[in-house]
């Protein structure tokens, strides 16, 4: 969720000072880009996975403080809701058997953490939206105790001036009102980080935007919210609405939302940070004592604290990241498109598909974004959120086609080519991309399995709706712990 903050009230002077400091950060950042000051020797990748906590009945467990205390591992951190935690996987390289090692590391960490969490009466579930989460679980009391979240909540509602209206049409229709940002905590995601050079950043970001819809189609895993079956990736619409600071009037005027796909292809990472400062008022205007220009003048690396803090409150589905590690600055594309789950191996397969495909597209002599309108990429994204594995998307040279057919015929070969360019071991490449292939051939991902299993218990069985969701989630958890790819999960 970004940098820690400890201020509880902000004045007009605070906001003015913060805006000035963001602009000074931008000046320093532009100079760093001109002077090529960024680490680019060994590009690293990383993964963050947000998790849900459940009790013995598969209902949300509001115990993240107890669970984190029991786990006692810095890789696990608090998240927005008391029923959430997050694991940050140490950065690594994907060449050779790097993805295999990442999978084994994540499984070992989650298994060890699950054993410790069980002492609190809690279990961890890797899923996009917890199917058993209901409206009575999303009160302000469900916010994590970290003061940042209460402060962020207060600032968003001060900007809105009214409650959040959530309205989602899917298989069923949902319309609810919330007086806090806790519904945002329902959206648990997987975030892939890819370190790139400043020159390469726009190519990788544009490529990530172009494939976002296809990622969602094959990786959807969030069909239920508050007991209703909605979109195949309901998390997209929920996050867009739950974190929206705009009133109805501001939406009508065309003010940009804080959860944003974007509006154009870019030519520099600077474009995105400049948009942040131009379009979005600060939510957390906390300033540091750093003068970034003075830091550059003495040959050191500035933290650009205000730039990073502001960036952390603007939720692009592909977000630019500036970071400093061991006094060396670097840039990353943070891919925030996919939900968590269903298994660790599915997550790593999704990562292999993403890392390979963006590499191939970024290196293409005729970029895909030169053949495709930005609005088409955005429409693909929202179509895939609604329809999941059954989505139709537009692709240059193909026209409108089933996403699964596009993946099988065009994109898997490109992803394989890209993984070869990353020098991934061919056996690792084929195993992981084979999981994506089978999902497309069998037309089954996490969302479709959840929906089918639910109807086995509810429509065709004897369970009530809430008990059917609990029963489905229990089966989900059993398969999740076995680490069997979701396309192999039975429905009976």
TrEMBL record:
GO terms for molecular function: ligase activity. Pfam families: GCS2 (PF04107). Transmembrane segments: none annotated. Keywords: Ligase. InterPro entries: GCL_type2/YbdK_subfam (IPR050141), GCS2 (IPR006336), Gln_synth/guanido_kin_cat_dom (IPR014746), UCP012666 (IPR016602). It catalyses: L-cysteine + L-glutamate + ATP = gamma-L-glutamyl-L-cysteine + ADP + phosphate + H(+). It comes from the Bacteria. PANTHER family: CONSERVED PROTEIN, GLUTAMATE--CYSTEINE LIGASE 2-RELATED. This is Glutamate--cysteine ligase. It comes from Kribbella deserti.
């Amino acid at each position: 969720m970004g940098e820690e903050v400890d201020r509880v009230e902000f004045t007009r002077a605070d906001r003015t000072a913060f805006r000035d400091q963001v602009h000074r950060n931008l000046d320093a950042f532009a100079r760093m880009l001109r002077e090529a000051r960024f680490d680019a020797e060994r590009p690293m990748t990383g993964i963050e996975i947000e998790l849900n906590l459940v009790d013995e009945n598969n209902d949300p467990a509001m115990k993240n403080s107890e669970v984190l205390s029991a786990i006692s591992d810095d890789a696990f951190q608090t998240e927005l809701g008391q029923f959430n935690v997050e694991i940050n996987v140490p950065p690594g390289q994907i060449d050779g058997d790097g993805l295999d090692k990442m999978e084994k590391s994540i499984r070992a960490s989650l298994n060890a953490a699950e054993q410790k969490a069980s002492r609190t009466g809690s279990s961890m579930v890797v899923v996009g939206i917890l199917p058993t989460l209901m409206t009575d679980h999303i009160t302000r009391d469900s916010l994590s105790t970290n003061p940042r979240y209460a402060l962020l909540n207060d600032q968003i509602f001060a900007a809105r001036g009214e409650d959040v209206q959530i309205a989602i049409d899917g298989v069923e229709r949902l319309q609810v009102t919330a007086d806090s940002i806790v519904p945002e905590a329902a959206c648990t995601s997987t975030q892939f980080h890819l370190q790139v050079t400043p020159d390469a950043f726009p190519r990788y970001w544009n490529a990530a935007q172009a494939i976002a819809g296809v990622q969602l189609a094959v990786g959807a895993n969030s069909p239920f919210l508050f007991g209703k079956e909605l979109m195949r990736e309901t998390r997209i619409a929920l996050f867009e609405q739950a974190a929206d600071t705009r009133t109805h009037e501001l939406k009508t005027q065309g003010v940009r939302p804080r959860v944003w796909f974007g509006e154009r292809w870019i030519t520099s990472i600077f474009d995105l940070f400049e948009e942040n400062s131009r379009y979005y008022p600060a939510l957390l205007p906390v300033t540091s004592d750093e003068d970034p220009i003075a830091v550059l003048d003495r040959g050191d690396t500035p933290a650009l604290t205000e730039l990073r803090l502001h960036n952390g409150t603007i939720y692009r589905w592909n977000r630019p990241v500036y970071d400093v590690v061991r006094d060396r600055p670097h840039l990353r594309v943070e891919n925030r498109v996919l939900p968590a789950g269903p298994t660790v191996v599915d997550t790593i397969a999704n990562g292999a598909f993403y890392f390979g495909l963006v590499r191939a597209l970024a290196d293409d002599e005729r970029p895909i974004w030169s053949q495709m309108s930005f609005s088409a990429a955005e429409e693909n994204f929202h179509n895939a959120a609604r329809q999941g594995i059954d989505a139709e998307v537009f692709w240059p040279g193909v026209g409108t086609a089933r996403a699964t057919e596009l993946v099988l015929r065009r994109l898997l070969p490109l992803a394989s080519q890209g993984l070869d360019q990353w020098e991934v071991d061919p056996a690792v490449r084929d195993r992981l991309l084979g999981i994506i292939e089978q999902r497309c051939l069998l037309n089954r991902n996490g969302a479709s399995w959840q929906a089918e299993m639910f109807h086995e218990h509810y429509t065709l069985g004897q369970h009530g709706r809430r008990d059917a969701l609990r029963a489905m989630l229990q089966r989900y958890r059993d398969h999740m712990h076995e680490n069997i790819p979701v396309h192999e999960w039975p429905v009976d």
